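INFO  loader      accepted 1 record
INFO  loader      residues=453
INFO  predictor   begin
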Amino acid sequence: MIALITLCCATPVWMLFKKGILRPTLATCAALGTGYSLFLAALIILVQTGAPASSMVQVYQSVIPIVPRVGGRVLEVPVEANRPVMKGDLLLRIDPEPFKIQLAQAEANAESARKRLAQNQDSQAVASARVEAEKTNLAKAQQSWEAARQQVAIAERQQKSRQEILASASADLSRTQGQIKIAEKEVGDMRKLVEKDAAPQDSLEKAIFNLATVRAQFESALAQERRSRLDAESVAELEGARATERQAKLAAESHALLTMAEADLRKVQAEAGILAETLKTAEAAQASARLDLAETSVYAPADGYVANLQLQPGSVVAAMPTASMMSFVCADRVAVVGFFLENSLRHVAPGQSADLALGLHPGATIKARVNSVVWITGEGQLLPSGAIPQVSTLRSGGRFAVKFDLDPEYAAFRLPGGATGSAAIYTDHATAIHVVRKIMMRIQTWMNYLFGS
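INFO  predictor   done
INFO  writer      dumping tokens
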């Protein structure tokens, strides 16, 4: 480009010399050389500032290491190296039989855990019903105890009443005994008086009748006293009531059955918690086994192709994160990055237009826009360390990465990872000089036919 500019500037000067308008003196040549040098320096500064360029452009593609999540013998590898595959296509298949067995065992364990938990729930229902029944029985026993206490109170009152009747009957018996003595004495006295004719015979008969009456009353009182004594001395009813009351009290105060029922319920509930955890573990194992079975088939994560395919059916793979079985190149995950000198990025900003000249597409100028500028380099990274940075470890200069987005009309261009080329960014500064950089970029892309990028 400098040679072209020099030729363009030298041609009119040579014409002026040829026509005699300018004389080729030392002063004239020195003035023209100095002016051209200043012009060329200003032009280079303006071009590098307003439209910075870089010959270090690299195309990057995402490469996904294909690492099987499970290990085993490879049964099938239906893809070919460097052949396009679509997202979801089968890349490799591992023998699924061992994982089917593991899944069946995990499903059986999970089903067994579900059945044990269901049985435990039935046992909980039975234990809860037993607790409620024991509570009901205890309430009934307490009611029976209260009724027995009332019966004891009634029996005690009846016994007290019998004792009072016995005392009254004994008092009547003692009184009639005294009356008999009085009546016998009266009959004896009357008999003496009648014998002495001191009293009429009627008075004696009357005294004898009175004695007979008193003796009859005595017999009645004696019989009543005996019946009352028998009733008073008969405590079977009271003792029976008291015995019933004692039994009812023991039943009401005995919580043993209820305590045992509640202990059984707590035991069953504790077992339910253990069984629930067992079921969760079994279901987790089942889900893990199902996932392992699904992972025996590995599918393409995106549109792309497999590079450097060495895996063959019959190989044994291990589930190791660092052991990649194949490298999958993503076709739609492409990044175009240019590396620019730091002094040329002062006016670069996202959204500015750019031209790309790639060696893979000679003669074509690819339109793009600045996506972002990565304002850090590897030299500027400070890693956690106890060492203090030394001057000898610092570098005097570096390049910053600029990422580009292709314009939509160039989306179909083939941009494989590793392709190189040049790039120019057209900033908002010194826009009048952009035409120079555009000419330079087009010269560069045509030169790619001869020399590449």
